[in-house]
Design brief:
Elements: H1 9-16, E1 21-23, H2 30-46, E2 51-53, H3 70-82, E3 88-93, E4 96-97, H4 98-101, E5 109-110, E6 115-118, E7 126-129, H5 131-143, E8 150-153, E9 157-159, H6 161-172, E10 177-180, H7 184-197, H8 205-215, H9 235-243
Parallel strand pairs: 1-2, 2-3, 3-8, 4-7, 6-10
Antiparallel strand pairs: 5-6, 7-9
Helix pairs in contact: 1-2, 2-3, 6-9, 7-8
């Protein structure tokens, strides 16, 4: 194993020597997503790497607004620079992670209270993919010589918050109330008001993410069937695997 440090170009040179493909899975602030990834790109280019997969793994932030969700803005800025590197570039887009959106800290699925809480009508649709399936498709895409540079989309399910609630109810036998916190436009107004009063770009970061989920277009050119024997798990199967043993 070779350890690399995004702030240490010498270590990045060691880590990229003799490497054909670099997969970036970093997370953090500007010093990581922007400066660190660009340092990794420079090392990859110096050492003859053929292809790089930036740390995208998200909703289609290329189609989303700027100045709403800082981590997406940083990725978009890094990707614009990486596109000029001369390397092959694959942008893996998987929507949200099922494991994250359904986790208690996301504030959407509250099984203790028997509720699903969300902004909007509950019928707005978005893409979700499990972390494991995103990993599997990323590994195959990284080594797929027939895959052209550009966006590579995979989606376990395109669904709504009501669909999520239905799947969790079916898996657990537990009824869940659907609680809308208000219209999507009200969420947008509240975030804009918060931004005007508080310049911290991480203020209400979870709700900023949810606004992205509810307003960006669905993933395009989804490639769920590209690789024989591999299909992403739909959310109802994920829910059964996560909670079905409790029923």
């Amino acid at each position: 194993m070779i350890e690399g440090d995004l702030a240490d170009p010498t270590s990045l040179d060691r880590a990229t020597q003799g490497v054909e493909v670099v997969v970036s899975c970093v997370q953090g602030g500007p010093e990581v997503i922007l400066d660190g990834q660009l340092a990794l790109m420079d090392a990859a280019r110096r050492n003859g790497v053929r292809r790089i997969l930036p740390s995208d793994f998200a909703l289609d932030f290329f189609e989303g607004p700027t100045a709403l969700h800082l981590p997406f803005d940083l990725r978009k800025r890094a990707d614009a620079r990486i596109a000029q590197s001369g390397l092959e570039v694959i942008h893996v887009l998987n929507g949200g992670f099922m494991d994250v959106v359904a986790a208690p800290f996301a504030g959407i699925l509250d099984r203790d209270a028997g509720a699903v809480r969300f902004w909007g009508t509950g019928e707005e649709r978005f893409d979700l993919t499990s972390i494991e399936d995103t990993e599997r498709f990323t590994a195959l895409a990284a080594l797929d010589r027939n895959l052209a540079s550009g966006q590579f989309a995979v989606s376990g399910s395109q669904l709504s918050f009501n669909d999520m609630a239905d799947a969790v109810e079916a898996a657990t036998g537990q009824p869940l109330r659907r609680e809308s916190l208000g219209p999507v436009e009200e969420l947008r107004r509240q975030i804009e008001a918060t931004t005007a009063l508080n310049p911290n770009p991480y203020a209400r970061i979870g709700e900023r993410y949810q606004l992205f989920m509810l307003t960006v277009p669905p993933l395009r050119d989804v490639q769920n069937t590209r690789y024989d024997g591999l299909r992403p798990e739909p959310f109802h199967v994920f829910a059964q695997r996560q909670w079905g043993q409790e029923a």
